[in-house]
Amino acid sequence: MANKINYEEVLGSEARSLLEHKAKVSKDRLYRPNPNWVSDIVTQTDRPIRVLRSLQTLLSSGRLANTGFVTIFPVDQGIEHSAGASFAPNPDFFDPENIVKFAVETGCNGVASTLGVLGSCARKYAHKIPFVLKLNHNEFLSLPNKYDQAMFASVKQAVDMGCVAVGATVYFGSAESARQIQEVSQAFQLAHEHGLATILWCYTRNNSFKVDGVDYHTAADFTGQANHLGVTIQADIIKQKLPTNNGGYKATKHGKTHEKVYTELSTDHPIDLTRYQVLNCYSGKIPLINSGGESKGASDFADAVRTAIVNKRAGGMGLIAGRKAFQKPWKEGVALMNAIQDVYLDPSVTVA
Q1: Is the pTM of the predicted complex or chain greater than 0.70?
Q2: Neighbours of 237 (CB within 10 A)
């Protein structure tokens, strides 16, 4: 059951703009999240029957069960950002069992983490909450720091510990992206053969995506194209950062784009920018979940609610949120995750 959020109190002057915006691209062009998504959409694909069951298991768990929406608790930052940087704010999360316990207590649809974290408590929890094993990571100990995704785990290990899905990251736009695409594509094919669903972190990475002091790594045109590449290698769910601007192609003057991307398919409104991401996920046939982003302290609660509203109204399927929750005292983190879920449970927050 949802707790009603006072959006004007939480979001202030931005509340009306977010809740009343009429999207540039009609929602009628989209395949929107719904409780029958697996039956209506996925059954038409080449996915094996066991993949359908795995996806339905994910969508039938937690507080958002059978709504068509998901929240997933992801904790791989111990590798991606270092354990100290990630868990020092709340040392309880050095203990991997607390990662899974938190996902269960908050009513998430699933928990996504590393081989070590999930493997350490698989027999105790794999039957209580859907597991998503993150296969690759960017380790951050090498000097100089490098930005490359290396395989840390195998699909067989995910199968053996009872996972319903695997996750992976590709740094699209990077010098290493061709190898990563091949590795992840092969892993996803194998995952589907074993009945596991696939979730792709579709991030962009290239120092040249920063032009004249503006960072275009989260531009709608770049992230939209990353999504389109992700669905091409048969990700079942796309994870993407919320877009913050547009015009990456125009700034870098590389690749190809079209003026209508900026004039007819988007505006500078966050819902329109995110809808362009959804369009690139085969018009929503492959659902989009946005990431919650880093913790910024006092504004985290409002930021999480805002991100959930933008994703839901744009036509997305949910959020995958970690640091905003686990870097806080336990009860505050639970309240934040439940607030995200309350947005998706609130019928007054509609697809724009």
Answers
A1: yes
A2: 25
